[in-house]
Amino acid sequence: MAQLDRDGQTEGMRCLVTGVTGYIGGRLVPELLEQGHEVRVLARHPERLADRTWIDNVEVISGDAQDVGTLNEALANVDVAYYLMHSMLSGADFHNVELNMARTFSRAANAQGVGRIVYLGALQPDIPERELSEHFRSRGQVGDILRQGDANVIEFRAAMVIGSGSASFEMVRYLTERLPVMVTPAWVRTRTQPIAVRDILYYLSRAPQIPAGVSRVFELGGPDVMTYQGMIDGYADVSGFKRPRIIPVSVISPKLSSMWVGLMTPVPPSMARPLVESLAMEAVCHEHDIAEYIPDPPEGLISYRRSLELALARVRNSDVQTAWSSSSLPGAPSDPLPSDPDWTGGSLKLDERETVVNATPEALWNVIEGLGGEHGYYSPPVLWEVRGFLDQLVGGVGLVRGRRDSDKLRVGDPLDFWRVEERIPNELLRLRAEMRLPGLAWLELSIRQDESSTGHTQTVYVQKALFKPRGIPGEAYWRAVTPFHKIVFGSMLKNIRERAESHPVDPVDRIGPKTQSVAPPTAS
Fold first, then answer.
1. Which of 157, 160, 202, 467 could form a cystine bridge with 349, CB 3.0-4.6 A?
2. Are 308 and 349 part of one and the same domain?
């Protein structure tokens, strides 16, 4: 490993960051670059990184972290490898998926002679392993597997991470804002030690400076030890909402709790269940030994309430850098829309509509890019809400993921039950469906400029809904929903046109540089 220089800092190292399209990984990359390290990233969908501000300053390896060949390429000549992957969205078998992935990674790191692995795990309750929730047990066992290799391992164990876009923050936020009265399981009075994402990134980005011989677990927590009820009350106080009335009961099962969390928050039941099961177990730090190797941040660790203030400021300023929902959904379709509709022998279904818009392309793009989330889809909301609810009933994500940013989109962003597949400002927005469907689906919104009969240039809005059915169920699905297209997509076309014509914008407001936040570079 690189040697320490005279100031006690390591010289620039080559660092591999996995999980880079996820919540922590996407925020860690700029921190490592700022520390002077050379960064390589591994991404299954590298196209989703195209709009990141740091993309031109890193090396990108495309591939799956469970593929040995890909891992060997990604880990070659690496000093420090960041293991930031988890599989809670994989469903009931997430435990085995996580362990197998860790074994593959450890073997590849050994083969490539990696000196250090940095792993972000979960703070473990002080109880026997057999009594742990599956989530806690899996996180701990992943660390054990990584330590079986030759590399020294720095395992950071943290409780709930609070920051704009984090799953923990979103759960607390939505429950507090939506439910004036909560009948909750008894775990609402379990103690935990939340930590700000800004502090997590501080320690992660400085892990390369820990001396090469150190290989151990470090516990990370914020300055506040509190109950989950205290977290909810704290959010209400900071955000200006009334504190909800909380009635703890002991008869609500984890399955029922996770379904309730899945309906009320953006976190789907498949992810909510392992989290909810873990909430019944106390997660409080027993040591803060990391301070022997990495001094605490100069301004001190951020309190829970201050972390909420920072997160809410990011949300209100539409400056959320990454979100938990940015991670890929296992089983979600990733096939790009084919350029030739005849690729399936004519079976690609199409609903296409267009209209002339008496507005500039910039004004129309403003409306298109604002689609979804709190803005809706410019057609009867009840139909979209019913479709989202039906998707949740069959294990899909529904509409609750919302948007990372209320105004701007990036390639790879989740958007309710869609994901942004292609984005060309003032020209094209293509969304790929991640709802549960008997086939593949896309929604494509595009802008072109034609010459009118009078010789003037006119703006044309083109809207396409495309569907590639899978067998007889797919054909039946398309036939079943086609009668609703006139209501859903017809009104959508009309309302987007009227919205653009009544809300002109300065094009610089949409495609120019965003106003920089006064917050420090580290995300919250």
1. 467
2. no
- Which domain range does residue 354 map to? 341-511
Q: What angle do CA 348, 443, 509 make, to 5 degrees?
A: 150
Q: What is the value of pTM for the model shown?
A: 0.74
Q: Which of 326, 359, 384 corresponds to the end of one domain?
A: 326
DSSP codes of every residue in 223-289: S--EEHHHHHHHHHHHHTPPPPEEEEES---HHHHHHHHHHHSSS-HHHHHHHHHHHTS-B--S--G
Question: Closest by alpha carbon to 82, among 46, 129, 115, 48?
Answer: 115
CA distance 256 to 168: 19
Instruction: Note whether 350 and 267 are same-domain residues.
Output: no
* pLDDT tens readout for residues 388-397: 888 877 777 7
Residues 499-515 have pLDDT tens digits of 999 976 544 343 333 33
SS (H, E, C) 161-210: EECCCCHHHHHHHHHHHHCCEEEEEHHHHCEECCEEHHHHHHHHHCHHHC
Cα–Cα distance, 222 to 377 (Å, whole number): 40
Using CA atoms, how far apart are residues 177 and 165, in angstroms rounded to an integer? 16
For residue 350, which amino acid is it? Answer: L
Structural domain contains residue 499: yes
Contact present, 42 and 68 (Cβ < 8 Å): no
